[in-house]
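Quick one: structure tokens for this chain, please?
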Amino acid sequence: VTARLAVNVTGLPAQAAAQVTVSGPSGYTRALAGTAQLNLLAPGAYTVSASPVQLAGRTYTALPASLDVALAASVTPQTVTVEYGAGTAVLLVTVAGLPVGTDAAVTVSGPAGLSRVLTTSTALPRLEAGSYTVTATTVGSALTTHQPSLALQTVTLVQGDSSQVVVSYGSAPLQLEVQQVVSGLTQPVFLTAPEGDARLFIVERPGRVLLFANGALKSAPFLDIRSRVNNNGERGLLGMAFDPRYASNGIFYVYYVDLGGNMALERFTSTPGADVAGASGGVVMTIPHGGSEHHGGMIAFGPDSMLYLAPGDGGCCGDPQNNAQNLVNLLGKVLRIDVRTSPYSIPAGNPFIGLQPNRQEIWAYGLRNPWRFSFDAPGGMLYIGDVGQDAREEVDAIPVGTAGANFGWRFMEGIVCYNPTSNCALGRTLTRPVYDYTHADGCSVTGGYVYRGREIPEFVGHFLFSDYCRGWLRSFRVQGAGVADLRAWAGITLPQMVSFGRDGAGELYMVASNRVWKLFRKIS
């Protein structure tokens, strides 16, 4: 039964205070010095009035000086704009060439520090006479790059007159490129960072985490546990994840193969922002393994703040023990645990709670070697790159809350039967991959991330993945039980493409050939 009013004040220098008054029913009055939202208002007729502002010898008057608005009860505020200006010139900025729904990126700057950011065609009234600069930058939408034909234009305004500037965009298919940002590494296998942190944390298989900051590697490692990491064959320090509250509690986790050949999840606590990790908080979980292959390697916190990890099936050649389908052990699974307790606890919602002797840590199963997986919280999806046997590689994708999915190994390899060689899905509910490819196209899938950064807006919502042997880069969007917008990105080939990484701003990297490469939009 209340109303809301948002008053948007523009056109004043940053140091100037507006003189805006809102008046309404029952003697209501409120003075505003700038943009504000007023809540819990009685519905009715209101008047927004603005008095002139004096600053540095200039008089800024508002347009309109008075505005009447009728407010109805609503949870959504009604918005009015009060636009100040110190002159009588008008600049009309017309934006052309962009598809409907795509915002421009235009900045108008001029006398007295004026700066306005525009996303669409806009008339700017009350401007002073003088020289104005109109700057347009590249924007993107739906795998398409929109570039302004003129990035910089100038116009001279005369008092009492109107002038027009046209910002024309041209469109072309998005092109990507990678640029090397880090070298001098020893068997790097992963890259990560806490949200909002400008540093890069690079995991090396022998047992170190290196820190890259301000364009250079730090001389001292962030973490060095080489003395207790088994680095033979596919073993080693394989994964790292920061607690969602790392900025305040300094907790992070690493996943490695210990000297006994078992997979270990270990907690560390450090000072947030420190360049060297603190002391170990102890091993949280040990998973018996004993084999030389298929350890998985990824750990990650889900949108539910639970920790997920994905051990491989335990060894080579068709999963002879059928571990991936055996719910009594943890191999060939995605596990979900609550590490906020010590020892860890089983979170509500895990599919096998109370179903003894099944392991209650299991969230999903039927995986061969899920080397890399990732969550896309905005899209509500979990993506898994599961390395195949002799013939096919697969990418699985399921909604985040889907518990108990069986991804099919060893019954199926990708979308074809493996063991048995026919009728393998008969009587079973198996979750098939959204995408798979044969070994004519690669040898070992490297799962990636859905892009959610800001530097390539036309790429937002697309999942990237690669192959260790071929090093190509591909992407798609999940659509139903399959994919859309499948792209093979020309000009990018990074053999030994072992992992993707994501920094604290959501930008993506490729870890390949003992180096780190960053993904960029290519401007031709």
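The two ends are 56 Å apart (CA to CA).
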